[in-house]
Design goal:
With 104 residues, this protein is of the alpha+beta class. The chain has one domain (6-102): Beta-grasp domain (Ubiquitin-like (UB roll)), CATH 3.10.20.30. The protein is 25% helix and 25% strand. It contains two helices and five strands. The protein has helices spanning 31-38, 85-102, and strands at residues 6-13, 18-25, 54-56, 59-61, 74-77. The chain has a five-stranded mixed beta sheet with strand order 2-1-5-3-4, with helices on one face. The longest helix is centred in the C-terminal third of the chain and has 18 residues, at 85-102. The protein is elongated and about 70 Å long. It starts with 5 loop residues before the first strand and ends with a helix. 15% of the residues are buried.
């Protein structure tokens, strides 16, 4: 008897485009293996799919190489941040404080 496959989705969003792929994988397939099997890396050659952080439904998964997919999972590929959000907020607050100081 043939092994029953699990339906999942793999999604990636770049600055200029996004792509969602549906595919079926064998039970026990790791998140990382499912992403590689999807072929999405050919659509986003600028990303290092082998090391990008992965998540499922908005929650980062630390062990993407060992965690198995579940039926209906939407595996998300996260791209690196261009700027540290904490640093951006700090600079914005400093700029606002300086503006308040100059224009009381």
């Amino acid at each position: 008897m043939a092994e029953r496959l699990i339906e999942i989705e793999v999604v990636c969003a770049a600055v200029d485009r996004q792509l969602l792929l549906s595919l079926a994988v064998a039970p026990g397939t790791s998140l990382r293996a499912a992403v590689l099997a999807s072929g999405i890396a050919t659509q986003f050659p600028e990303l290092d799919i082998d090391s990008c952080p992965l998540g499922v439904f908005g929650k980062v998964v630390a062990d993407a190489e060992t965690r198995s997919v579940q039926a209906g999972d939407r595996i998300e590929i996260y791209r690196p941040l261009l700027a540290d959000p904490k640093e951006v907020r700090r600079l914005r607050a400093a700029k606002a404080a300086e503006a308040r100081r100059l224009n009381p």
